[in-house]
Task: inverse folding
């Protein structure tokens, strides 16, 4: 068709084409694309990925994981696997059927208003952030002060 479309560059999803809701913009780094509702676009893409027939590719698996704001480590702990396994699935594109189905169910439950699942996902995100932080306490002339910093890994 002659309809103007753009390929979705977000997350490397090569099979997603966007018909409208975007505009080309000039940036300091060259031409770019600006979306009118990026959150809505992301949710629409994730909804179709979660329900699509066939297995997820590694890139699609990663896209759903990132929309849940789960690190590879958090998802691996939830699935009872290793962080390296999740990284390999995403990189090599060979996601085990059981992991594919678990991530789809997790996304669907968290985004269809299933509060207990949404709470688990939120808690995993908080725990992961805490693991990557440190509390720094120092004495000043006015007493002790504390702050949270990102840990250097």
Result:
């Amino acid at each position: 068709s002659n309809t103007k479309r753009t390929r979705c560059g977000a997350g490397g999803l090569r099979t997603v084409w966007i018909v409208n809701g975007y505009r080309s913009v000039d940036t300091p780094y060259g031409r770019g694309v600006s979306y009118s509702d990026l959150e809505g676009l992301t949710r629409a893409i994730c909804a179709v990925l979660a329900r699509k027939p066939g297995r997820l590719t590694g890139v699609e698996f990663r896209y759903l994981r990132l929309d849940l704001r789960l690190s590879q480590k958090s998802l691996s702990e939830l699935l009872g696997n290793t962080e390296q396994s999740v990284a390999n699935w995403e990189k090599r594109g060979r996601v085990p059927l059981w992991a594919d189905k678990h991530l789809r169910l997790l996304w669907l439950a968290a985004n269809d208003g299933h509060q207990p699942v949404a709470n688990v996902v939120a808690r995993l995100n908080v725990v992961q952030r805490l693991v990557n932080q440190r509390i720094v306490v120092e004495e000043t002339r006015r007493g002790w002060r504390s702050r949270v910093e990102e840990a250097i890994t």
Notes: The chain has a mean pLDDT of 83. Residues 50 and 108 are 7 Å apart (CA to CA). DSSP finds six helices and six strands in the chain. The radius of gyration is 19 Å.
